[in-house]
């Protein structure tokens, strides 16, 4: 009776541990899903910034062409128009430069985040594998206890 009681307590304890491990596995999977969503959001922002840079580059080219046409039309207004166009070009180049810098920062940030998330993901996979191994060991032990119990009685 006493052995049966002890074995029952051990089985219950192992079942609680199994439930705890299962809950942890679910939490780990949720963390991974959130991190993947975060990476996806970063990629979307990166694509948006890339499109913005392309648009600014096209605007810059259009502004330069417009300035050239205006210079050819009249020499009298060329100087003032040239200054305006150059100012516009400088602003667009500055903006383009800022966007390129931001794009590079976002790429670095994305790469850093991916590295961290990959590392964390690998860590979580290792922990999951360890947890599953522990689960298997516990299940084998429970099987052993069941068969021992069956053999005793």
Automatic annotation (TrEMBL):
UniProt subcellular location: Cell projection, Cilium, Flagellum; Cytoplasm, Cytoskeleton, Microtubule organizing center, Centrosome, Centriole; Cytoplasm, Cytoskeleton, Spindle pole
Report the InterPro entries cross-referenced here.
Answer: Odf2-rel
Residue stretches in coiled coil: 4-141
What keyword terms does UniProt attach to this protein? Answer: Cell projection, Cilium, Coiled coil, Cytoplasm, Cytoskeleton, Developmental protein, Differentiation, Flagellum, Microtubule, Spermatogenesis
Gene Ontology CC terms: centriole; centrosome; microtubule; motile cilium; spindle pole
Q: Which GO terms describe its biological process?
A: cell differentiation; regulation of cilium assembly; spermatogenesis
For this chain, the family text in UniProt reads: Belongs to the ODF2 family.
| Protein name as catalogued | Outer dense fiber protein 2
Q: Which gene encodes it?
A: Odf2
């Amino acid at each position: 009776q006493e052995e049966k009681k002890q074995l029952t307590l051990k089985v219950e304890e192992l079942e609680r541990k199994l439930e705890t491990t299962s809950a942890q596995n679910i939490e780990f999977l949720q963390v991974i899903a959130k991190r993947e969503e975060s990476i996806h959001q970063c990629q979307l922002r990166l694509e948006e910034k890339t499109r913005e840079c392309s648009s600014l580059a096209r605007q810059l080219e259009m502004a330069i062409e417009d300035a050239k046409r205006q210079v050819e039309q009249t020499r009298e207004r060329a100087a003032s128009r040239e200054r305006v166009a150059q100012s516009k070009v400088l602003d667009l180049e500055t903006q383009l430069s800022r966007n390129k810098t931001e794009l590079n920062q976002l790429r670095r940030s994305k790469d850093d985040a991916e590295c961290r998330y990959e590392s964390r993901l690998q860590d979580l996979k290792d922990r999951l594998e360890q947890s599953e191994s522990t689960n298997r060991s516990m299940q084998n032990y429970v099987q052993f206890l069941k068969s021992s119990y069956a053999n005793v009685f």
